[in-house]
Amino acid sequence: MEMMSNGDWAEDTLIEILLKLPVKSIVRFKSVAKAWNHLFQNPNFVSQHHGVSKKKSKHLVVYNMDILVSRTPKHKDISIRSFVDEALVSYHDLGQQLPPHFAAMNDYFDICIDNGLFCLFDSHNSVLALWNPATREFRNLPECNLSFSRKTCSYLTPNLGFGLDPCSNDYKVIYMRHYVDFDKNLTGRHYAIYKMSTDSWRVLKEEEVPFSLDLVIRGDISKACVNGVYYWFANWQSKVLAFHLGSEAFELIESPLSEQNGSGELLILHDRISVWDAQFGIDRKRSNEVWMLNNEGQWTKVLKIELPVLQAKWMFGFWKVYSKVLVESVWGELLVYDLESHEFKKLGIQTKNPGYIFQVFTYEESLFSINNKVSRPMSKP
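Below the sequence we write its predicted structure tokens.
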């Protein structure tokens, strides 16, 4: 890294201290000296700082929506809450940082989070954007070139994936949309990949999408990115579709769940993709088992979670230690359930309509600049 003049401080000591600071503090310190500003943009420093953040300070982010039926017309109140402490006592609304277009939306938009960055998709207006809440940077992506005419085609809501490619250290977006061309009386698909380093899209060829048009991809809340691979449920939950960000290749995997009711959940566990039988109910015979994909490409059952069926409706994953599970209650509250003490803790979030807590993420802050193509994270600082 670049040498700095630091008085009586040894450079290594100073860097070690700076690596432990939150992003908010480092952003303020950019104006201290040019050398500090250059250091904070150094890819090695950015990567090292993010590595410390992942181990030290994970945030819980909750994305939910309330439908206010008392208003005319119906109003949808969208919030993106980030808990500021590991004890999950207080939070602030990240949505207040969004640009007017997204902040004023009266509709649901899709969110993907990976390695400190958010990818937002407004399907109604076909707008994609990247967002770093820690540095308050926001970047609209160029429009993806469509291979069909909007005037003659009807298309389904697209599916989205976003993550860091560990091979090239480049952030990528995978965009998938199926359509019907009424003039030509045919169905088709449009798949494309966006690379942040080039700020451009590449449309996939038909031979690069090795599965049929009949494959139904579940692109709502059940998806996850881990170790450079993005996963979605397909054909409800009988298949898992994987996209390898490095090789830009798809893989279709058999799911450990066979029941065709869409109640499974894809979540990250021990830095691996796992399938949770996530829904509870008195009238449902649920196994509530958790399966993990091993190195051989096989699903291994790792645990079974027992929750009071009268209170828990849906599981969102573990928080910090693997004895605490994030759940939504039947009343629409977000709770933490301790598997050892069998006690619930309320987090102060309750929707007016149960079932409208869309996504719960773990997120760590990052210095990565989405407006600087040069300052890309390095895998081996």
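Residues 23 and 134 are 6 Å apart (CA to CA).
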